[in-house]
Amino acid sequence: MTTNSHSASFWNENNRRIPLWRRLFFRTPKSTKGLATPNCIHQRCSGISLGNHAVKSILFSTDIALIDHSDADAVLAVYPFPPSAKIMKTLIDFTDKAVICGIGGGLTQGSTALDMAQQAEQLGAVAVIVNQPFPNKDIEKIKRTIGIPIISSISIGDFDFRRRIDAGVDLFHITGGQETCRIIQHINHHYPDYPIIATGGKTLGNIHEVIDVGAQAIVLTPPSNGTLFKSIMQQYRQGS
Fold first, then answer.
1. Residue 228: CB partners within 8 Å, gap ≥ 6?
2. Which end of the chain is more exposed for a tag (fewer CB within 10 A), N or C?
3. Buried b / exposed e across 85-104, counting CB within 10 Å, b at 16+?
4. Could you say which DSSP state residue 222 is in?
5. Over the stretch 80-104, which tens digit does the pLDDT of each residue have?
6. Residue 6 above 60 pLDDT?
7. Region 33-54: what's the mean pLDDT?
8. Considering only CA atoms, which of 232, 191, 198, 230 is closest in space to residue 212?
9. How far apart are CA 159 and CA 89, in angstroms?
10. What is d(CA 134, CA 216) in angstroms, rounded to the nearest whole number?
C-alpha cells in the first residue's frame, strides 16, 4: 500500500495543528457519535452482509467506551490473548453493532477454537475470525458446526488462498501493511467477486487505495484512550 503525499497520518498533526485522526474521528455533521468514521467509507464501499447487518465500517476494538462512541457498523473483537466467551458475551450484550469474534490463530486451535466458534454463534456473533496460522483442517470442522460466516485474516501474498476457500472460509480480511493493495489485487484476479474486508491504514490516502482495489469494508483502528486524553489535557493546560 503506498501513501499519497497529500495524506497526513492519523497520528501526526497537519494544517492548523489538528491531528488527522481527530478531524476524521471527531467530525459530526452526519453523526452524533464522537468517533465518526470517514465519509468516503460509507460513500464508496459496496459493503458486506453479516446477519441482518449491512457492514461497511468495522471498529477494531474491545473498549466499550470507544465502541459506544463510534458510528462504525461493526466491531472486530480480536486481541493478543486466548479467546474468551466472557468477552464475547460482554461485547455482544453491550452493543447493537455487529460483532465479529476472534476464535483462534497460532496458539488457539483444535477443539478449543471449535468450542469458541460454537459459543460465539450462540451468544449472537455475526461472524468468527481466525488468524493466518490457523489450520485449514480446523476451519473445515468449524464450518460443519456453525452457520455464521468464517473470516480469515491474511497478511502475506504468498498464501494458498484456494485451500483456505475450499476449507470453508467465507471472507478474507487483508491486513498486509504496505502489501495490502497488492494482496487484494491478487485475490480479485484469481478469485473474482470473493468478499474482502481490509485494514485501512493510517491515512485517508490508504483508505482510498484499498477501496479502489476492491475492499468492500474497511477496518479502522481508533486512537487509544491515552491518545485522546493527551489531546484533551493539552487543551485544558492551555486554558481552553
1. none
2. C
3. eeebbebbeebebbbbbbbb
4. P
5. 999 999 999 999 999 999 999 999 9
6. no
7. 90
8. 198
9. 33
10. 23
- Mind listing the pLDDT tens digit for each residue in 153-203? 999 999 999 999 999 999 999 999 999 999 999 999 999 989 999 999 888
pTM of the model: 0.84
As beta bridge partners, residue 209 has none
Among residues 151, 149, 150, 202, the alpha carbon closest in space to that of 180 is found at 202
- What Rg, from alpha-carbon coordinates, does the chain have? 18
Per the CB < 8 A criterion, the answer to whether 182 and 158 are in contact is: no
pLDDT in tens, 45-74: 999 999 999 999 999 999 999 999 999 999
CB 236 within 8 A of CB 39: no
Question: Among 95, 63, 56, which Cα is nearest to 79's?
Answer: 63
Residue 36's CB is within 10 A of a number of other CB atoms, namely 21
Q: Which three cell numbers stand for residue 192?
A: 473474482
Q: Which of 239, 212, 237, 222 is nearest to 33 (CA)?
A: 222
